[in-house]
């Protein structure tokens, strides 16, 4: 009897230890058509229940909540309905779980092993102190909007007469480094230019980081006011003679706006700046994004037709309030007949899309045509685009060039850089889903083009 009791005791101990062993940090790598994407599952236990949070380091995502976590018969199952994701794997002993990852119809093998928790990203271009230049934390006021903007000013160690550029971020709330997906492109760009003898001011968007204000209610015009405040700060407070603007993506819309109405801007650099009206930019973007994610030609054509109708309602309206009932009626008719496109899926998806289109930023963006403003830009302009950019296609360069030359701008340089995506990373595919998987933050070729052009102008 004693022997049976001891055997049962050790079986129970083994079961408890097995359950305890599964808690912790588990990392693995998906291979998606040759592209490697790391995942980390943080599994924890409370009583008889399990919970999991997930990181996708290469996509800059941390602490993603999942739905249900189960561990029974040495099988770990993690589901995340909001992501359409499921992982199921069997404990192999020696801190290894062999399983399968499923998401959106895709099924891939995934082996998990224990990791320390945080998975370090390889970002070899990211500079580390000490820096061979001066670094100052600064603030300046946008008195028109009643807000304070906070940023970092980097200045060459020697000399007094050098140009200073203001970096202008792309769409969405961005900090001063334009940080996304584990990359800090503006930090890399600022470091490179300052080492080349060019000062740089980069700042947190309104409502982001240490800057005050409300980002959600702002449009491109508001961001232009913020940049004008930066120019005034450099001109009046810091006595800078030659001030330039470098705008990325939406920042490439802001820079011409500021340059067209400020005599204090000596030059501008447009990085993947739009030349087409906003609705055309979005339609092209949706088409290319759908193509790389495997949507069929029929799905893409129908999505384009639906979005074209939505944008036409916006274009013909005098305000978002006027457009709202018309958009709702159109989307309701699609939902009732079961004809919502794949990106909306259901009535809730349609409602989210309608809200997005009617948001202050997108309503303005859809209607905004950059060309009339480009005609008013008289200072030297460098416009760059990557050949693999799927968000602002390189064809925009020709439109930018024509717009500037129509206004008799005599100093226009336009270049399409081979093999670069929207973030100016060297890539095989321009898909945004892969931005975080690329170690390079900013192509050295693009950095040199920018630095050489500014220095070549003798500012």
UniProtKB/TrEMBL annotation:
Q: Which UniProt keywords apply?
A: Signal
* Any one Gene Ontology molecular-function term assigned to this protein's record: carboxylic ester hydrolase activity
Q: Which InterPro entries match?
A: AB_hydrolase_Est10, AB_hydrolase_fold, Hydrolase_4
From what superkingdom does this record's organism come?
A: Bacteria
Keyword Lipid biosynthesis appears in the UniProt entry? no
Task: Mention any Pfam family matching this sequence.
Answer: Hydrolase_4
Q: Which residues form the signal peptide?
A: 1-19
Residues covered by the Serine aminopeptidase S33 domain: 189-341
Official protein name in the record:
Serine aminopeptidase S33 domain-containing protein
Species for this entry: Butyricimonas faecihominis
């Amino acid at each position: 009897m004693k022997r049976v009791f001891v055997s049962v005791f050790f079986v129970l101990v083994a079961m408890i230890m097995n359950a305890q062993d599964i808690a912790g940090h588990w990392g693995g790598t998906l291979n998606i058509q040759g592209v490697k994407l790391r995942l980390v599952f943080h599994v924890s236990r409370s009583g008889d229940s399990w919970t999991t949070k997930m990181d996708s380091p290469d996509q800059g995502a941390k602490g993603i909540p999942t739905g249900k976590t189960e561990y029974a018969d040495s099988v770990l199952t993690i589901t995340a309905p909001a992501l359409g994701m499921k992982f199921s794997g069997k404990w192999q002993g020696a801190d290894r779980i062999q399983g399968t990852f499923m998401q959106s119809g895709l099924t891939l093998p995934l082996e998990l092993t224990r990791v320390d928790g945080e998975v370090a990203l390889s970002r070899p271009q990211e500079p580390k102190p000490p820096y061979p230049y001066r670094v100052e934390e600064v603030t300046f006021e946008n008195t028109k909007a009643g807000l304070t903007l906070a940023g970092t000013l980097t200045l060459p160690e020697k000399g007094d007469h050098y140009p200073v550029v203001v970096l202008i971020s792309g769409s969405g709330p961005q900090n001063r480094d334009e940080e996304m997906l584990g990359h800090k492109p503006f930090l890399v760009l600022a470091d490179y230019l300052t080492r080349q003898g060019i000062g740089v001011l980069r700042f947190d968007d309104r409502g982001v980081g240490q800057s005050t204000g409300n980002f959600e209610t702002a449009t491109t015009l508001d961001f232009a006011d913020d940049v004008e405040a930066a120019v005034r700060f450099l001109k009046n407070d810091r006595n800078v003679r030659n001030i330039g603007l470098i705008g990325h993506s939406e920042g490439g819309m802001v820079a011409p706006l500021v340059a067209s109405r400020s005599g204090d801007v000596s030059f501008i650099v447009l990085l993947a700046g739009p030349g087409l009206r906003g609705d055309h930019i979005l339609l092209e973007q949706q088409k290319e994004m759908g193509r790389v994610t495997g949507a069929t030609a029929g799905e893409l054509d129908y999505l384009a037709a639906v979005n074209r109708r939505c944008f036409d309602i916006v274009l013909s309206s005098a305000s978002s309030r006027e457009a709202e009932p018309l958009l709702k009626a159109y989307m309701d008719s699609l939902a009732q007949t079961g004809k919502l496109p794949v990106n909306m899926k259901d009535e809730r998806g349609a409602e989210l899309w309608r809200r997005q289109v009617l948001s202050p930023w997108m309503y303005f963006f859809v209607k905004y045509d950059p060309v009339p403003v480009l005609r008013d830009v008289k200072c030297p302009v460098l416009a760059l685009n990557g050949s693999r950019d799927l968000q602002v296609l390189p064809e925009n360069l020709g439109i930018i060039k024509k717009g500037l030359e129509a206004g008799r701008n005599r100093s226009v340089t336009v270049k399409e850089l081979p093999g670069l995506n929207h973030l100016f990373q060297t890539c095989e595919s321009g898909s945004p889903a892969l931005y975080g998987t690329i170690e390079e933050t900013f192509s050295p070729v693009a950095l040199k083009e920018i630095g050489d052009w500014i220095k070549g102008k003798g500012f």
